[in-house]
Every structure is written in structure tokens, then in C-alpha cells.
Amino acid sequence: MQRYQLDKISSKNWLTATETEQIIALIAASFNGVDSRQYFNRYFANPDHYQRRVRLFYQGNTLQGYCLLTFRKDTNNSIVMGASAAFTPGYRGNNSTFGFSFAAAIRTWLRHPNHKVYYLDTMLSPAMYRAMGKKVAFIYPNPGMSQADIAMYHALVPNAEASTWQNLHCLKTVGRATNYTGDDIARLKASNKAEIAFYCQLNPNFAQGTALMVLIPVNLKQLLCTGVKWLKGLVKQ
């Protein structure tokens, strides 16, 4: 069956009733300990978000995954992008979210030159942290954070819970967890991939409903350095 994508924007062509029910069913299948309809309302229908964008991934008529981006205006003249994603087990690992998220971040930054733009995500998946960390130049937390970096991060992620790593306040109890199998969890915790190992060091209880608060600044330095990183990756291939 053919794979294809649909992009939806809250201000234009937002979700149909059928798409809404498909997403709610996927949320229920993807996360443990979550009321899927309540979760949908919190992320897909929250009035605090001035805009929502979602990419739906289909195989035939079956929804295989989604990547939702939310946008809200915060204090200090800033825009905070949030994210939510869920995929069926067979569709995970395709790195389906980065291009969509990064393009939206650039678009937001260009359209709001007088705002500071940040991408802030509560990541429940070590694999998602690795997917983003391998692509962008500056992601927080990271193992090389200076004291200035930590101060900046703490200021932008208030009320986070402490990790045992440098007492960094970077965790959030969300009460849900990605629907990993026991083998999945064991494999992730035993991984020697740098980003996954660091995530597990920061957040060893990711399978019990604790998320890592991941912050990615969106600015000229980030865009230029990420572009250079991307080009270097192409040369190595």
C-alpha cells in the first residue's frame, strides 16, 4: 500500500472528524497511562496555542503516525514551539519529524524577526532525542553544557525536576510513557550511542512516565551551524 503524508494547519484546513478519531486511536495505542481524548484536547485543541500544524503519515487508509507542532506566545517577547508525535512500531525510526519541525521553526523565525523563538519538547523517547541531537547544532541538555548554558537553560525551562546529572533541572513527570516493550527498554538502556546513553543517564525513568525537557533555540547561529553540520554529514556519506 502506498505511503503518503497530509499537512494540516489549524487556521486553514484543520482536522476532519475521521482524522481526529484516527489520531485519538493512535495516541491510545502509542502511550501507556494516558486518556487519549483528554490528551488530544490538550495538544490539538488548546486555546493557548495561536497556531497548530500537524503532519499525518498514512499507509493506504491507515494512519501510521503524526507529528504535531504547537505555537504559543510567551513572556519576554518569545514564541515557544511545542511538539507531540506518535507512530506505530513499524513506522518508528524513520526520522520522519525533523524536516517538518525544522522547516516550521525557520518559517516562524523569519516571520517574527522581533521575537525570540524556541523549540521546547517533553521527550519521552531516547531515540527522539538522538534523532534531533544528531541533526541540530545546539540542543539542551547536552553533555558539554557550561555553567552559563545551564543558567540559560534553567531560566527558559522553569519548574523542571532535578536529574542526578549535575543536579540539572530538566525532567517533567507527565504520567504517560511511550508504549515500549521490555526488550525495547533494555536495548535503549544498553545502547552505546552517545545521545541515547546521555538521555538515559539524565532520565533513567523514561519508561515510567518521566520526560526530558529538550530546548532548541531557533536563531541565526543555530540555522547556520546546523546547515554546516548537515553539509558535513553529506560529505561523509
Give a description of the structure.
The structure is a single chain. The protein is globular. It has 237 residues and is of the alpha+beta class. It has helices at residues 17-30, 36-44, 98-111, 126-133, 147-156, 182-189, 194-202, 220-236; strands at residues 3-9, 31-32, 51-59, 62-74, 78-87, 116-123, 161-162, 169-173, 177-178, 210-218. The longest helix has 17 residues, at 220-236. The strands form two sheets. Strands 1-3-4-5-6-10-8-7 form an eight-stranded mixed β-sheet. The protein contains eight helices and ten strands.
Question: How large is the count of helical segments?
Answer: 8
Low-confidence runs (pLDDT<50, min 5 residues)? none
- Cα(first) to Cα(last) distance is 30 Å
How are the strands of the biggest sheet laid out side by side? 1-3-4-5-6-10-8-7
Q: From N to C, what is the helix and strand string? A: EHEHEEEHEHHEEEHHEH
Q: Biggest sheet, in brief?
A: 8 strands, mixed
- What is the 3D form? globular
Whole-number radius of gyration?
Answer: 17 Å
Oligomeric state of this protein: single chain
Strand tally is: 10
Organism: Rheinheimera muenzenbergensis
Protein name: Acetyltransferase (GNAT) domain-containing protein
Any chance you could write out the topology, listing elements then pairs?
Elements: E1 3-9, H1 17-30, E2 31-32, H2 36-44, E3 51-59, E4 62-74, E5 78-87, H3 98-111, E6 116-123, H4 126-133, H5 147-156, E7 161-162, E8 169-173, E9 177-178, H6 182-189, H7 194-202, E10 210-218, H8 220-236
Parallel strand pairs: 5-6
Antiparallel strand pairs: 1-3, 2-9, 3-4, 4-5, 6-10, 7-8, 8-10
Protein name: Acetyltransferase (GNAT) domain-containing protein
Organism: Rheinheimera muenzenbergensis
